[in-house]
Amino acid sequence: MKSRPIYFLSLVCLLSISCIEKQKKVNIENEISDPLPIGKKLTVYTTADSTDLRLTQTNSLFFSEGKQPLETEISVFVEPQKTFQTFIGIGGAITDASAEVFAKLNSAKQKELLDAYYDTDKGVGYTLLRTPIHSSDFSSETFTYIQENDTTLSTFSIEHDRQYRLPMIKRAMQTAKDSMLIYASPWSPPAFMKDTKNMLQGGVLMPEFFQPWANYYVKFIQAYEKEDIPIWGVTVQNEPMAKQTWESCIYTAEAERDFIKNHLGPTLEKEGLGNKKIVVWDHNRDLMNHRANIIYSDSEAAKYVWGMGFHWYENWSGGEPMFENVGMVKEAYPDKQLMFTEGCNERFDSSKYQYWPNAERYGKSMINDFNNGTAGWTDWNILLDQNGGPNHLGNFCFAPVHADLDTGELIFTPAYYYIGHFSKFVRPQAKRVSTSVSRSSLLSTSFLNEDGSLVTIVMNQSNKKLTYNLFVGARKAMIDIPPHAIQTIKY
User: Fold this and answer.
1) Glycosyl hydrolase family 30 TIM-barrel domain: which residues (predicted)?
2) Which of 90, 112, 133, 193 is positioned for an S-S bond with 186, CB 3.0–4.6 A?
3) What DSSP assignment string belongs to 275-291?
């Protein structure tokens, strides 16, 4: 038998070493991609109807080996290797109404409220904040930042906001340790800029005032930032297709597109504010696809737009929430972002402070919106009084927290805790993770935080206590959830 050439033996050795190294690399990658060893701990927090459970730690469990579930079992399936949009935060609006009610509380209750919303340890850790550009319906009066007919904006002043709004925003920022994205929305241009000469009851912005109105956004941003309140972005117009009895203004899709393309976008850029995010639509899910198609199909307008904001009031017509429209916009325009910019329970009734369906509306919306690609979620007023106001047009609504100004007490509704199941545990820069359920009685979504922790939120919409399997990759845990409850599982 002939001896093999030295180069052949060397090649065999090199191939063998290469195979061994590749196998080692595969093993290491498998170890990295399997972050849940058997025995890893998970902690369960629960809020449930007809109980005292409010963001209460209810269980500590451990993952075991996950085997094929049966069709008779209820399961939640999480695949951490499949990630989607980056999360920017959850929060609420500080309106004139919220700030005015806050100012009437004693110092202890003020601190309690701020901690409850903005402290991650003591509260639910809000990181988003929306505020109106001058007045909205949730103000005690209609006002602007300029004198009427001041087309040059020489009288621009945010002096009105110094009494209530600015102090509350600053204290919220301090409590949140400045980890806050703040954005602003106008409800109406000044009356003289509109065809109706009225800030209320709709009307449209007249073409000759497109540029002065664009300049107004600049003045607002500069004035707030001079107060050390950084503005992350602006929405173009609150509810641009609604003729409301309060401050409102109508923009067709084409009008909003052209205002952004020819005025707002270039003006922000020219003034050194090109990094500010422009959010379009800021209205219900029903017409959002049409608005996206019109604005995003124009590259000159779309280049200025960060993404689309939306509300949840499309059920005014008697229909169901149009969650799928959110996903369709994301599918069609994956490079543009989505943010829920307003939602509240309407028609205030103090007998319904603890009305559980109001909270479940939040849970259902948040899970569906996130699963359809939403990056951030903003509630409406963070605080209102015992009448659901103040509101200068009588549009009284619920907030997650109310202050009874007769007794000085704070009233925490179940909605506060439902929101907290997301905001307390899912932190900015988290990635949404693939999550599905095997039965319609449950809703679920999951996120991977930057620190490596995984968070799964599960909501039980049924009247029954359920036991479900939580499958995470190849691991499983069995968890009980009460009827009409929401849980956060952190692991």
Assistant:
1) 89-426
2) 133
3) TSEEEEEEEEGGGHHHH
Give percent above pLDDT 70 in the chain.
93
The answer, yes or no, to whether residue 3 has pLDDT greater than 70, is no
For 149, the token pair is 């007919």
Catalytic residue of the set 100, 247, 342, 360: 342
Active-site hit among 239, 247, 256, 360: 239
CB of 312 closer than 8 Å to CB of 285: yes
How confident is the model over 282-315, as pLDDT tens digits?
A: 999 999 999 999 999 999 999 999 999 999 999 9
Residue 454: Cβ within 10 Å count: 21
Contact 482, 467 (CB under 8 A): no
Crossing angle of helices 288-296 and 323-332, in 10° steps, is: 20
- pLDDT 10s digits, 189-240: 999 999 999 999 999 999 999 999 999 999 999 999 999 999 999 999 999 9
432: number of Cβ within 10 Å: 21
Q: Is 342 in the active site?
A: yes
Question: What is the spatial distance between Cα 234 and Cα 94, in angstroms, rounded to a whole number?
Answer: 15
